[in-house]
Amino acid sequence: MYPLLRPWLFRLEAERAHAATFALLDLAQSLGILRHVVPTVPSMPVRVMGLDFPNPIGLAAGLDKNAEHVDALATLGFGFIEVGTVTPRPQPGNPKPRLFRLPQAHALINRLGFNNLGIDRLAYNVGRAHYRGILGINLGKNFDTPMDKAAADYLAGMRKAYPLASYLTVNISSPNTRNLRQLQDADELRPLLAALKHEQQVLAERHQRYVPLAVKIAPDLSDEQLSAIAQILLEQNIEAVIATNTTVSRDGVEGLPNAGEAGGLSGAPVRERSTAIVRVLSAQLGGRIPIIAAGGIMRAQDAVEKFAAGASLVQLYTGLIYRGPPLIRECLHELLDLRAVRP
Q: Domain with 255 in it: what CATH number?
């Protein structure tokens, strides 16, 4: 059905189309229609971060910031769902318009700015959901929290999200919160992750369950920066790294309508760079920390490329907007076909 709906949705302003899509999805799910119109996806179980995933194709953070649509999204066949980015306090994000399509490039630019209803509302929504699969919760800092207090925001979010999550993601790579990306610098990253790992142990004892930590990084990093980050991830025993977030580069979209808008670029133009980041990280980490790949997966072959570069899991976002739910099934069938022919 999505190919029929997409032309209508693309006539709407991008953020309105986002809301309309979820309204339709939630209605179809509540009426029991969705499970009958979405084809069953094949099983492809994998174990990553000590967690058992029914398949390795996940939803990236950003699409369902407040965990308001988890049950409907689960019906589409994802092996895992990541919600957020969520901040300790509610915040409106940047002024609208702040989400832009670049259809000629199969891309989006967003400068949403961590718009969300806060960790308490997200926790309430997760508690109401019936979904019992793998759920990641992506944590950020409030825009008005000083950078020298950033760790306090991540810790506050972590404490409330911990009992609800299968894993937690530390988002230090959005280009839409001022100075956030400086947390990727070694001098900032090491103490932040040390504080979070200490709290992880405290919470594991309190809740009698261990929730892995992942770190989400930007595609706009040099090999030298990647090497430093990889060493810190190993040193701090981080359970996974997500590569990558959106890019501030405009390579591949120069001159297109909306290309000059500020914000992070996602979709097909970021595919090669995000895959290169996965490849470099894979060499640096040597299989000791799993990589969750995101960025530019618009077709099944793009997912295969990420796994070949060293990913253990992949996440979809912009590809889902342009291709719809069939992309999940296509990726899984391609991966299973490759598995069948390999010795």
A: 3.20.20.70
